[in-house]
Design a protein that fits this description.
By secondary structure, this protein is an alpha+beta fold. The protein is built from 11 helices and 20 strands. The strands form 4 sheets. Strands 11, 14, 15, 16, 17, 18, 19 and 20 form an 8-stranded mixed sheet that branches. Strand 12 and strand 13 form a beta hairpin. The longest helix has 19 residues. The N and C termini lie far apart (67 Å).
Length: 537
């Protein structure tokens, strides 16, 4: 007879102990491989432990309600062709050898088994805080989508498409230029070149300010005010982006902020060519959104795009880590008129296709996040430190969406995720959300369902909260907090009327996602909530 002992496994990342809640077997029971032995409660979930071998239960080594450390033996099972201990050891009571030979042989026949489970990732978005205030800033563009590099004109060849800088140009001319540039835009994703950025100085130490001699008469208040006004005007002129009037008009027509465009003019000004190139790159990114997710039949590990971290991105990452903690957070917020989302949800509730399915605005937000992530891929990524000990890292951009939903349960906060959520229809996504919530409330969420998350949504609005600064789920780079939707006064077409308003709060890992990218992602999510019909495009 061989007696095997089953040690309490580590079913989650960093798990050190667990409580045996309920045994599903008793001594004398015959068990097969993968039969449930017991339920254990970890810090975040209730987990069923399956048997790693077949045989007869000889002893339960831990009583129900007892908390034990990982690696502690909790059950003993004897292997032997469906026979029990009484048959194998004679007629003696279970666990009691009949002679010295049996006693001597028992230790030699005993084996201990400790399985290795996958990692359990838990979200601390509701019970963690930032050390200091949230980081803000723009910095180089973080999107890992590759773009065509621009060449500066210092003695360079004239580009294939040129426009005279002092020409007004017509809308047709501009559209033709955009079409020509879009045709040149690459289809495959490539690494984004670093974009220079100038951070404004927000504070000047008093010790560095010019000092007024004691003998100098004090400046009168009106004169000081005029000096401040003149100084502000000069500062505004100095920091203003250089561009000629026709270029500024072209930028307004395209909805481009000149500050986001790399200037290649000989005097540091933004040219029309710069705008054409910038817009072509934006269009190329949006056109690739439909094909971004990759072939759904392929394993997920074959749909991960690996982008080497080097140059400006590596320097930016180090600066962000030095200025905050391991995942430097940047948080932004946006108020959204969700009135049309509320109308859409109301229609879905009475739709025959959604009969018996719980529908809420969270469903539309989930779809919006998936849609926006395809347009801004770097929010759907993971920062991975290299194991070579040299301080290197990679950004793993995921071409799949395992959408995490933070769920408050009696046992604490859990973040199960919906695998390959990008492939689900609106109805399928609604069913998945309902199943996720039901299992989470019942404490039946398994560790595998909380692994491999891509991006998390936390619905703090369900608790009547307007907004917050959520903490990013480990292994991810973005999390969205969905605030409560309630009627507020809103200015629409010059009139103040009641509308259904919500606030979105987003936190992003500043090593991967900079201010520009996080703002574009949040704007895309807000656009869907304001007009759900965009999902039909």
């Amino acid at each position: 007879m061989t007696v095997k002992k089953f040690n309490l496994p580590d079913v989650g990342e960093g798990l050190t102990e667990a409580e045996v809640v309920a045994w599903k077997v008793k001594p004398g029971d015959t068990v097969a491989i993968n039969d449930v032995l017991c339920e254990i409660e970890t810090a975040k979930s209730l987990v069923e432990l399956p048997s790693p071998f077949a045989g007869t239960v000889t002893e339960l080594l831990v009583e129900e309600g007892i908390t034990v450390e990982v690696g502690t033996a909790i059950i003993a099972v004897s292997e032997g062709a469906g026979t029990d201990d009484a048959t194998l050891d004679g007629a003696a009571p279970q666990g009691q050898p009949t002679d010295a030979v049996a006693v001597a042989q028992a230790p030699a026949a005993e084996e201990v088994f400790t399985p290795t489970y996958g990692k359990l990732v838990a979200d601390d978005s509701s019970d963690s805080g930032l050390a200091g205030g949230p980081l803000v800033g723009s910095g180089p563009k973080a999107d890992a989508v590759k773009r065509r590099a621009r060449k500066r004109p210092a003695g360079s060849v004239v580009p294939a498409v040129t426009v005279a800088e002092n020409a007004e140009g017509t809308v047709q001319d501009n559209q033709a230029l955009l079409a020509a540039k879009a045709a040149e835009a690459p289809v495959a994703h490539r690494t984004t070149p670093a974009r220079a950025a100038v951070e404004p100085v927000t504070q000047v130490p008093a010790s560095s300010a010019p000092q007024t001699p004691a003998s100098q008469p004090a400046v009168s208040q009106p004169a000081a005010s005029r000096g401040a006004a003149i100084g502000g005007t000069i500062s505004g002129l100095v920091s203003r982006v250089l561009a000629k009037p026709p270029v500024r008009k072209f930028a307004r027509d395209l909805g481009i902020d000149l500050a986001d465009v790399v200037a290649t003019g000989q005097r540091g000004e933004v040219t029309r060519e710069d705008l054409v190139s910038y817009q072509a790159q934006r269009d190329a990114e949006h056109d690739q959104a439909d094909s971004f997710w990759g072939a759904s039949k392929k394993p997920q590990d074959q749909r991960i795009e690996r982008v080497a971290v080097k140059g400006v991105r590596k320097a930016t990452a180090k600066a962000m880590v030095d200025s905050a903690f391991s995942a430097p957070h940047v948080s932004i917020f946006v108020d959204v008129d969700a009135s049309r989302t509320m109308e859409f949800v109301k229609r879905l509730k009475v739709s025959r296709d959604f009969e018996g399915i719980k529908v809420s605005p969270l469903l539309i937000l989930a779809k919006a996040v998936i849609w926006a992530a395809a347009r801004n891929p770097s929010v759907n990524a993971t920062w991975v430190e290299n194991a070579d000990g040299k301080g290197g890292a990679e950004i793993h951009v995921k071409h799949f969406m395992n959408l995490g939903i933070a769920a408050a349960t009696p046992r604490g906060l859990m973040v199960p995720n919906i695998k390959d959520a990008q492939d689900l229809s609106l109805k399928e996504l609604a069913l998945a959300l309902n199943e996720l919530a039901t299992k989470a409330r019942a404490g039946k969420t398994q560790p595998a369902e909380m692994q491999g998350g891509s991006l998390t949504v936390t619905n703090i609005g369900a608790l009547g909260i307007d907004t917050g600064t959520p903490i990013i789920n480990p292994g991810e780079v973005a999390i969205i907090a969905f605030g409560t939707i309630k009627q507020k006064p809103w200015v629409l077409d010059g009139e103040v009327i009641p509308r259904w308003i919500t606030t979105l709060g987003g936190s992003f890992d500043h090593r991967v996602v900079d201010g520009d990218l996080s703002a574009r992602f949040m704007a895309d999510v807000a656009a869907i909530l304001e007009e759900p019909a965009l999902l039909l495009d």
